[in-house]
Design brief:
With about 150 residues, this protein is mainly alpha-helical. Helix content is about 80%, strand content about 0%. The longest helix has about 40 residues. Keywords: Membrane, Transmembrane, Transmembrane helix.
Length: about 150
């Protein structure tokens, strides 16, 4: 049962991360050079049109970090054990996808290629730590309430 729950958590985290990145790219109408909802259907043409726009790639790093944080939080909430590890797995999978993107499409600036390594792992780790801290506080609060309960 835990395998199904953990698999669902990973898929949910990746889906949330992808949705946030997609919505982030669509947030600025001047960047939209495609008709479909998801920019990934026309990614090569889209990246070619953005290859000289450093602000876009900076924003893409920011929105990727935000997406992996929220995806890591969602994953850590769903899994039962090893919350931070599963959140970091979201960062690893997103880093792998970003590395494939950089290898396949040659339109990324150098700062983006370097910064993806500094974005996905730390932000997904932060997402997992947020959930871990909240769960630990709630656990300590429940223990304190049980100890202070009048008999």
């Amino acid at each position: 049962m835990n395998f199904i729950r953990n698999t669902f958590a990973i898929l949910m985290g990746l889906g949330i991360t992808g949705l946030i990145i997609t919505l982030g790219i669509r947030a600025f109408p001047q960047w939209v050079t495609f008709e479909a909802f998801a920019p990934f259907e026309h990614w090569q043409r889209f990246l070619f049109s953005m290859k000289d726009d450093k602000a876009f790639f900076g924003f893409l790093l920011f929105i990727s970090g935000l997406g992996t944080t929220i995806g890591g939080v969602a994953t850590a909430i769903i899994v039962k054990y090893a919350k931070v590890a599963y959140a970091i797995l979201i960062g690893f999978i997103m880093l792998f996808i970003a590395m494939l993107d950089v290898i396949i499409f040659p339109y990324h600036p150098t700062f983006y290629k370097i910064s993806i390594f500094l974005t996905f792992f730390p932000f997904s780790w932060i997402g997992g730590k947020i959930v871990e801290v909240i769960y630990e506080r709630n656990k300590k609060k429940r223990i304190a309430e049980k100890m202070n309960k009048p008999k």
